[in-house]
Design brief:
By secondary structure, the protein is an alpha+beta fold. It contains 11 helices and 9 strands. The chain has 2 domains: 87 residues; 236 residues, Bira Bifunctional Protein, Domain 2 (BirA Bifunctional Protein, domain 2, 2-Layer Sandwich), CATH 3.30.930. 39% of the residues lie in helices and 19% in strands.
């Protein structure tokens, strides 16, 4: 027994541990439950009872020596491995850039427009983008044969003669209808949202865009109130030196109606491809709410009157940030968007 212990002690001392594989081999040979040291402990029961305490003490010393050698070798190997990992880090590499997000120019423009109209006392109303045909056209006084009802101009979801068809709303005016059906005058709201039209995509138009419409219904509301509201908004949005012009126009849901233009921001009124050489850019349409629309919403046109207006948020963003192509707002090109990160 004593000779076996001395032999194993010599083997443990002579075992070379240079790497992780050697360390694992040492553990499996000497330290596991079926290793060499454990086998000697199992033979201890066969030794004479008078010699067991001596052999037991020798075996415990052998086990402690093996554990100490294992722990020392393990720390040494881990230190070498950690040093190699640190050396693998190339300190000459540039650091990683931290990109900070920013508000999209359309959303920033829409937020500023909301703030301006809130200060004038307008509440904000929203509605579904998938809308009823009756709310989008019928109750807004669109004739049955109006071109806007054609599938070439509108994205219809359902199209049946005997049903209230569903479509992607072509303007946010249906929100005005919903408000007038649910509330009684006085009404003063703006209706921001995304709208869809089956249009040819160009530098000035897109098949999906953002719109903000306004509605004011009360007693004795006049066109002068409408003009004052538009002028106040334009001065706050584009600056106190902004120049506007009102042109007579036609909309089924307003009478009289007008379109409002501002001087082209690119050419300063001289004429360019964006303004089609006219020197002016249209920013909104407006007018007095048609009596038929009021009647459709159970509002007496003899007692109440009102005005409505609608403007493209995307086109307003083009004017504000001097962008010459509306498609840039929808392409998510980082080169364009990062200009608004400040």
């Amino acid at each position: 027994m004593k000779n076996s212990i001395e032999t194993l002690q010599q083997e443990i001392g002579a075992f070379a541990i240079e790497n992780a594989d050697d360390l694992e081999a040492f553990r499996l040979r000497f330290m596991v439950r079926k290793g060499s040291i454990a086998e000697l402990f199992n033979l201890l029961k066969d030794a004479p009872s008078s010699e067991r305490p001596v052999y037991g003490q020798l075996l415990n010393q052998l086990k402690q020596a093996a554990e100490k050698k294992y722990d020392v070798a393990k720390k040494s190997i881990e230190a070498v491995t950690s040093g190699r990992r640190k050396q693998q880090v190339d300190l000459t590499l540039p650091g990683r850039n931290e990109y900070q997000g920013s508000e999209h120019p359309v959303q920033k423009t829409l937020g500023d427009m909301k703030q301006i109209f809130r200060a004038m006392g307008f509440a904000i109303a929203t509605g579904p983008e998938l809308e009823r045909d009756s709310y989008n056209f019928d109750m807004l006084n669109f004739p049955a044969n109006h071109p806007a009802r054609d599938m070439q101009d509108t994205f219809f979801v359902t199209l049946n003669e005997d049903e209230d068809n569903l479509l992607l709303r072509t303007h946010t005016s249906p929100v005005q209808i919903r408000v007038m059906l649910e509330e009684k005058p006085p009404i003063r709201v703006i209706c921001p949202g995304k709208v869809y039209r089956n249009e040819a995509i160009s530098a000035r138009s897109y098949c999906v865009f953002h719109q903000l419409e306004g509605l004011y219904i009360d007693k004795n509301v006049s066109f002068a109130d409408l003009k004052a509201t538009i002028y106040s908004f334009a001065k706050q949005m584009f600056g106190s030196n902004v120049q506007l012009r009102f042109r007579p126009s036609f909309f089924p849901f307003t009478e009289p109606s007008a379109e409002v233009d501002v001087t082209c921001y690119l050419c300063g009124g001289k004429g360019c491809r964006v303004c089609k050489q006219s020197g002016w850019l249209e920013i909104l349409g407006c007018g007095m709410v048609h009596p038929n629309v009021l009647r459709n919403c159970s509002i007496d046109p003899d007692e109440f009157s009102g005005f409505a207006f609608g403007m493209g948020v995307d086109r307003t963003a083009l004017l504000r940030y001097k962008i010459d192509d509306i498609r840039l707002l929808f392409e998510n090109d980082v080169r364009m968007l990062e200009q608004f990160s400040q």
